[in-house]
Amino acid sequence: MTGNRYDVIVIGAGPAGMMAAGTASEAGANVLLLEKNESPGKKLLLTGHGRCNLTNIRIMDNYREKYHENARFLSGSFHAFPPEEVLAFFASLGVPAHEEEDGRYFPDSQKSVTILDALLAYLEKQHVTIRTNEEVTSIRSQDGLWHVTTGHGSFATVCVIIATGGASFPQTGSRGDGYGLLRSVGHSVTDLAPALAPILLRNLLRDAQTGRETAQASQDKASMSGLSLSGITLEDAAVTLLVEKNCVSKSRGSLLFTHQGISGPAAMSLSRYLPSRDEDKSLYDEEKVTVQIDLIPGIREDVADQMLLGAMAEEPNRQMRSLVRRVFGLPERVVDLLFEEALKEIPANRVTKQQRKEITRIAKALTFTVVCSTPLALAYVTRGGADVKAFDPKTMESRSCEGLYVVGELLDIDGESGGYNLQNAWATGRAAGEASAQRASTHSTMPQNMIDAQNNR
Ligand SMILES: Cc1cc2nc3c(=O)[nH]c(=O)nc-3n(C[C@H](O)[C@H](O)[C@H](O)COP(=O)(O)OP(=O)(O)OC[C@H]3O[C@@H](n4cnc5c(N)ncnc54)[C@H](O)[C@@H]3O)c2cc1C
């Protein structure tokens, strides 16, 4: 590098940008990493509730299903830098990791800051120049070089890697800047929507038997359906998202009731299917978007009914509520939802067949109305982004703009929870880092005096 000229400039010091910058430098390039925040890796620090679920050992077997529509785009970079190598990379930086449930890997320290510190030490060792408080406002290509402009000046480079992340959790710096930069050079960006987001529910219970809203029941139960359930976790629930009564998607896993709706893996993985275009607003206004929660997904409805019947015969004088709790293994506040007010205090021997069947039916399909598509700011990940068709999946280089690369969450790729999104960042960052260094080493560039003249214009 001479003056303001570099081989590779990386925009954004998140996981993808740091990986790209370190890799390019290790491969021999002079690298500048520009970050708009006062420090790198703000979102990385939040990952895994501060523990950083850095990858998932099962990814190579299930990535096609876990990354949805554009999963195939990741094949090349994942084979080049699979989870095992990501783990070996961090171990070589002094951060061993261990496996938890479903193949998820976390650093032994249980702290995401150790991953960030290791990356920063790696960048220092590779002599990457990091400039913080540098918000990139434009990029343009001229005479075989890219010119990257921030509030403080302009830099020239053979290759530019855009790693500005998505548009969710904007307080971390990821505000969707990369979409504008891409559009300015002719790239298209697919529709943006929340992924891995909580689902916001109305405090309203529908009649699970008929699907008809029972106005009085909803009034009566409004206070407990949402608010009073807040804080309850179900270890295993199945959630179905319905739009105009048609099943859009289903998921199963642990579920958390919050004061606004539902969260936890079972709810969050459905959020990417919430209708989210402007014209979909009427679906919410007309209460046509609902979720059905199966509280006992491991038990078939007819079997559940038989279990209740058996328990009622064994303990006819026991309060029906406590019997249901015992048989279905559900928390008290959740069980309350299955009962009409009148049924709450009665013993099992006074419950009719119809009432018993209704309890089971609601347990299998507790239904709430979704208020609206979750705001992008609340999503863990952004669905949509840089249209992957325009990029080479092995190198992440643009097919139309030579020397321009896109990595990480800025791409139109969203993964399930479980370390999938960070694996995307590591692997695509690595691929672009290697390819850009290679390109910079083989492409002759304009003489420095011409670049200096341009930079001073
Ligand atoms: C609360 C939370 C928990 C999560 N937990 C996990 C988890 O455990 N495992 C997992 O796999 N994924 C997790 N994710 C998702 C994961 O954090 C992201 O997918 C990942 O951080 C994306 O990496 P990235 O480098 O592409 O973008 P980002 O991490 O968003 O980084 C982009 C960087 O670019 C900078 N930037 C933006 N615009 C500019 C500009 N104009 N100029 C200069 N710099 C700019 C930003 O300030 C930021 O530092 C979580 C997300 C959230 C919000």
List keywords for this structure.
457 residues; alpha+beta; FAD/NAD(P)-binding domain; 7-stranded mixed β-sheet; 6-stranded antiparallel β-sheet; 18 strands; 35% helix; binds flavin-adenine dinucleotide
Number of domains: 2
CATH architecture grouping of the largest domain: 3-Layer(bba) Sandwich
E-strand count = 18
Spatial extent as radius of gyration: 26 Å
C-alpha termini separation: 20 Å
Query: Which strand-content bin applies to the residues?
Result: 15-25%
Give the bound compounds. Answer: flavin-adenine dinucleotide
Spell out the CATH superfamily of the largest domain: FAD/NAD(P)-binding domain
Indicate the percent of residues in helices. Answer: 25-40%
Largest sheet: 7 strands, mixed
Give the helix tally: 16
The fold-level CATH name of the largest domain is FAD/NAD(P)-binding domain
What ranges have pLDDT less than 50 throughout 5 or more consecutive residues? 204-227, 451-457
Which CATH C-level class of the largest domain is it? Alpha Beta
Look at the structure and give the mean pLDDT.
91
Gross geometry: elongated
Would you tell me the structural class of the helices and strands? alpha+beta
